[in-house]
Ligase-associated DNA damage response endonuclease PdeM (Shinella sumterensis), 236 residues
Amino acid sequence: MASTEIQDFGAVCARTVIAGVEAVCDPLGALYLPETRLLVVSDLHLEKGAAFARRGMMLPPYDTLATLKVLEAVIRRHDPAIVISLGDNFHDRIGSAHLPEIFRAKIVELARGREWIWINGNHDPDGTVNLPGQSADELHYAGLAFRHEPSLIAPGGEIAGHLHPAATVIRREKAVRRPCFATDGRRLLMPAFGIMTGGLDLRHRAMTGLFDRPSLVAHMLGRDRIYSVRFANLRG
């Protein structure tokens, strides 16, 4: 599926189509569906530093603040009516219950006047606690299925997270690896939105069977724009 770069919202995004639904890949790592004013993010992994601290591994405790700042920026850019967060919203089952009040207030502010859906993930299967919106295992809306883990038996029209796709290209004789949106026009996998999350290469065996590779495009996140690269042109 070919994509077209567009100058939009103060940044260069990439327009694509999933099962007939137009979508805009934002370089901040969110997907926007203009027709329904729906914004999708995935794998926030909020409170990851706190989760590691509970296990005795001390990490800088700034990940939640940094991730929420990026989320605030992308919401301001698109002003969505609906926000869907595609699972692993928190890094563990108790993350939302132990969320510091300053961060809880920020999420309440971001959600004001919008519909907010938290999709349950493998890290946080029990939903959220004392946060606006509703939790669900998956959502079917506007002709698309929104779920955390991609389904090999789904007929198509799916937007999912979980695998944190990334891709590598050669630029000026150097390998450059970046998170990406990955789509073949039937399914789209979201990049991880959390600032402390890693990525899984599109050639990893976990991606097997998810895409029609001749149609697969990696919409790679650059500093201030999206770089759209066909799978055949990625580094092997």
